[in-house]
Design brief:
Elements (H helix, E strand, L loop, with lengths): L5 H12 L3 E7 L2 E5 H11 L4 E3 L7 E7 L3 H10 L3 E7 L12 E7 L18 E7 L2 E8 L4 E7 L5 H11 L3 E5 L8 H8 L3 E5 L6 H12 L13 H18 L10 E2 L7 E2 L1 H6 L15 H5 L5 H12 L5 H16 L1 H11 L5 H10 L4 H12 L1 H9 L6 H6 L4 H10 L20 H28 L5 E5 L3 E7 L11 E5 L3 E5 L1 H34 L1 H26 L6 E3 L4 E6 L4 H5 L7 E5 L6 E5 L6 H17 L7 E5 L3 E6 L11 H15 L5 E5 L7 H16 L7 E5 L8 H4 L3 E11 L2 E10 L7 H7 L4 H16 L8 H12 L6 H12 L3 H14 L8 H17 L1
The chain binds adenosine-5'-diphosphate and magnesium ion.
GO biological process, one term: mismatch repair
Pfam families: MutS_I, MutS_II, MutS_III, MutS_IV, MutS_V
Function: This protein is involved in the repair of mismatches in DNA. It is possible that it carries out the mismatch recognition step. This protein has a weak ATPase activity.
């Protein structure tokens, strides 16, 4: 029988413990994979599959990647949902007796990536644990690259929808569950349908209370978990404990930068469900999933990646406490007013590196001297930032107080690390001589040695009379004396020949070797000493990493506030008044994103007045493309902006705190979920009706579109009644609809007001005025819009003819819907019934409207202006003419 080779035996022993992982087994300069791992990796990474004798009859399938370029291969595997275990040689091969000892030193999973090249610096990468039992649900999540750790619990199981929203908001890359958890009937399954998240089953014991409590106590070095306020939050304890357990298991080093548990109540923030976050395009657009075109895109003028990550969080977690909102608004006001302070602070911030991720490198022990220089550069600006803030202490107080100048750390770095160190920390050249007496002595020994060599060269030239004699150094021979062929006759006997070259001979002599020895030993000692000193510096910083992180957090907040002030100033936003009323009053308000895309001058501002009485509910009608959806979102976005503490695009804004914003916008198909449009629409609607309160803002855009006219109309009607019933809901609502019949409700229900977005008919065309006015729209202008969309003339003409017939037959005036529909069907028998779909499609595709058309004319004209060949007067005239045209749109 064949026997396994010792190395294979070692491999299989380790692999046994990491069955679910692809094991990267270090062999010299390569990571090798064997057997099934090799088969998977060769396929996924497109690398050659070979074999290796392993002692068995058949060769073991094998493939490998060079260790120095392993990162990109690991990234690919992680991206495809695999987990990777890195197995290193943990002793020096030259000193090993028998086979080199190997151990798994780190496990990489989607939620535990630390390599910057695999991460997006502006987005957090979260690993989460999920625990569900008869008492409720607990979650905990951490970003191990920044040290953030948060947890919350949901007491009753009815709130699963809330849990789902919360998890979707956090969007962890990986979720940990108990091995025996019934995943298939859990909400996690719904989450996985929505986006790509890895579900990892982890051993049950990690989810036991005692185990969790112990690990928390150990990690944070505390006597009782009460110190975190966790005493009555068992679910949080389990969630955090199991998470830490997993982090230890995968990272193999204690993560000191995870230094506190942030327990939060998810209802401390405005709750935004998944649909609302998507529909309002907060972080990315619906269509292209691009940042460009989202609210984040408009608001992001942050200078650091810590700030960028914080901004995302703030946008997804608007506040609901007036005091906190006003604190932020007041801070923005100060930074808004003081242009100089703002630009100075922003300049200082842009000099800072990512303190959070630098801290995590320090914790992991993989920080190099260049990172420490980045750290030093970042710390250098802290005192300046602090002193600039000191005058504004009052409102920006908390940030001011919590920024630690970290002068001691800065000084340590300044004293110890050279300004431009090499990448490697094991080859010397990183510590300043002045930092350590011993190091200084060793370095001067080298300088002396070099001086001796020069003197020796001088002396030998004189003694031998060979003027071209040279002393040089190479790695093979060390120092040697080089003499050209023509001078060999003058070489003394004491020289020992070492090497013959084409034109010269190389020699050594004992004295030279003695000096060399001194220099080289000193060099070796320097390298060791520098490494030791570097580690000392690193450890000192490690012990202070929590101070760095706290400061980083405050810098991040400052960065976001500055970004708000900057954006508010360049886009002319104003400070909203946020209070406890039920009012939303906006004067000349604009859509923050559309105005950026369309151009500020072209955007038509509009007013809003919602309250809890007469003006609770807007029914908004108007033709396709009039601007209904834009108006709805504009109101929602302005409320959200105010509650994250940003100024808003309106001349005046009074906002009574909103506890939730709900939206149901457009009839988008969610085919990936296997549900029909209508089904999706109705389930979103029921979510709204079940969860909204008097303090909510509801945005309904064209609900009921997904079914037949009668159904849709009746549902819409009933919904309006329900929302307006103050005993049940009474939420402030904006409702855009194409059912003109609904405008009748104004007379029937108190609080309902009809509005429409005005258009002007001009002959055969229509012009969108974009102004919202009181009253219902009387016509849908479908044919005119269709014409704008470029529908063939034949279709337009035919449609007009049919419309005329309809109108003369007075079908529109028939009160009874049934009669009306029958009459219409009779008339339209020979007309294809998908005309309106076609129009809609065309419209969406081209987004054509008169506005765009006319402005593009002006743009074309602008493009053709030949400024170089114009007199100033001509230029003035041209400009005058263009302005006139623009105003006329
Ligand atoms: P509707 O929902 O009524 O069909 P949209 O809200 O989708 O219309 O608006 C159609 C287009 O009109 C938008 O893409 C935008 O470019 C433009 N638009 C909307 N409102 C305004 C406005 N107030 N000022 C300028 N352009 C606007
Ligand atoms: Mg619309």
């Amino acid at each position: 029988m064949s026997r396994l080779t010792p190395m294979m035996k070692q491999y299989l022993e380790i692999k046994e413990k990491y069955k679910d992982h692809i094991l990267f087994f270090r062999l010299g300069d390569f990571y090798e994979m064997f057997f099934e791992d090799a088969e998977i990796a060769s396929k996924e990474l497109e690398i050659a599959l070979t074999g290796r004798d392993c002692g068995l009859k058949e060769r073991a399938p094998m493939c490998g990647v060079p260790y120095h370029s392993a990162d990109s291969y690991i990234a690919k595997l992680i991206d495809k949902g695999y987990k990777v275990a890195i197995c290193e040689q943990v002793e020096d091969p030259s000193k090993a007796k028998g086979i080199v000892k190997r151990e798994v030193v780190r496990i990489i999973t989607p939620g535990t990536i630390i390599d910057p090249s695999m991460l997006n610096e502006k987005v957090n990468n979260y690993i989460m644990t999920y625990i569900e039992n008869e008492n409720g649900i607990g979650i905990a999540y951490a970003d191990i690259t920044t040290g953030e750790l948060k947890t919350t619990d949901f007491k009753n199981l009815e709130s699963k929808k809330k849990v789902l929203d919360e998890i979707m908001k956090i969007s962890p890359r990986e979720i940990l569950i108990r091995e025996d958890f019934d995943y298939n009937s859990s909400i996690l399954k719904d989450i996985q349908k929505n986006y790509n998240v890895l579900i990892t089953k982890y051993y049950n014991r990690a989810f036991e209370y005692k185990n969790s409590e112990d690990i928390i106590k150990k990690h944070f070095n505390i006597f009782s978990i009460d110190s975190f306020g966790l005493n009555d939050r068992k679910l949080c304890v389990i969630a955090v404990g199991s998470l830490l357990d997993y982090i230890y298991e995968t990272q193999k080093v204690p993560l000191l930068h995870i230094d506190k548990i942030n327990i939060y109540n998810y209802d401390k923030y405005m709750i935004l469900d998944k649909f609302t976050r998507t529909n309002l395009e907060l972080l990315e657009t619906i269509r292209g999933k691009d940042k460009r075109g989202s609210l984040l895109w408009v608001l992001d003028k942050t200078c650091t990646s810590m700030g960028a990550r914080t901004l995302r969080k703030w946008i997804e977690e608007p506040l609901i406490e007036i005091k906190k909102i006003n604190d932020r608004l007041n801070s923005v006001q100060i930074l808004y007013n003081d242009v100089i302070l703002r630009s100075e602070l922003r300049e200082l911030l842009s000099k800072m590196y990512d303190l959070e991720r630098l801290s995590s490198k320090i914790v992991y022990g993989n920080v190099n001297a260049r990172d420490l220089i980045s750290l030093k550069t970042s710390l250098k600006v802290l005192p300046e930032i602090k002193s600039k803030l000191s005058e504004k202490k009052f409102e920006l107080g908390k940030i001011f107080e919590e920024i630690d100048e970290l002068k001691d750390i800065y000084n340590l770095l300044e004293e110890s690390i050279v300004d431009d160190p090499p990448l490697s920390i094991k080859e010397g050249g990183i510590i300043k001589s002045t930092f350590n007496e011993k190091l200084r002595e060793l370095r001067s020994a080298i300088t002396d040695g070099n001086k001796w060599i020069i003197q020796l060269e001088e002396r030998e030239r004189k003694n031998t009379g060979i003027k071209s004699l040279k002393i040089s150094f190479n790695k093979v021979f060390g120092y040697y004396i080089e003499v050209t062929k023509s001078n060999i006759k003058n070489v003394p006997d004491t020289y020992i020949r070492k090497q013959t070259l084409a034109n010269s001979e190389r020699y050594i002599m004992p004295e030279l070797k003695e000096i060399e020895n001194k220099i080289l030993t000193a060099q070796e000692k320097i390298v060791d000493l520098e490494y030791e000193l570097f580690n000392e510096v690193r450890n000192t910083i490690l012990n202070n990493v929590n101070r760095i992180l706290k400061t980083a957090k405050n810098i991040a907040s400052l960065d976001v506030l500055l970004s708000f002030a900057e954006v508010s100033s360049i886009y002319r936003y104003n400070k909203p008044k946020v209070n406890n009323s039920k009012i939303i009053e906006l004067k000349n308000a604009r859509h923050p994103v559309v105005e950026r895309v369309a151009g500020e001058e072209l955007f038509v501002p509009n007013d809003t007045l919602l309250d809890d009485d007469e003006n609770r509910f807007y029914i908004i009608t108007g033709p396709n493309m009039a601007g209904k959806s834009t108006y709805l979102r504009q109101v929602a976005l302005i409320v959200l902006m105010a509650q994250i503490g940003c100024f808003v695009p309106a001349e005046k804004a009074v906002i009574g705190i909103v506890d939730r914003i709900f939206t149901r916008v457009g009839a988008s198909d969610d085919l990936s979920q296997g549900q029909s449009t209508f089904m999706v629409e109705m389930s979103e609607l029921s979510n709204i009706l079940n969860n909204a309160t008097k303090n909510s803002l509801i945005i309904l855009d064209e609900i009921g579109r997904g079914t037949s006219t009668y159904d849709g109309l009746s549902i819409a009607w009933a919904v309006i009644e329900y929302i307006n019933d103050t005993k049940i809901l009474g939420s402030r609502t904006l409702f855009a609809t194409h059912y003109h019949e609904l405008t009748e409700l104004e007379d029937r229900i108190k609080g309902v007001k009809n509005y429409c977005i005005s258009v002007k008919e001009s002959g055969d065309d229509i012009i969108f005025l974009r102004k919202i006015i009181r009253g219902g729209a009387d016509k849908s202008y479908g044919i005119q819009v269709a014409k704008l969309a470029g529908l063939p003339k034949k279709v337009i003409d035919r449609a007009k003819a049919i419309l005329k017939k309809l109108e003369t037959n007075d079908i529109n005036n028939k009160r009874d819907y049934k009669d009306r529909e029958i009459a219409a069907i009779n008339l339209l028998e020979d007309t294809p019934d998908n005309t309106s779909d076609y129009i809609n499609e065309k419209l969406n595709e081209k987004q054509i409207n008169l506005f765009d058309y006319k402005s593009s004319e002006i743009i074309n004209e602008l493009k053709n202006v030949d400024i170089i060949n114009m007199t100033p007067m001509d230029a003035m005239n041209k400009l005058f003419e263009l302005v006139k045209k623009a105003k006329a749109i």
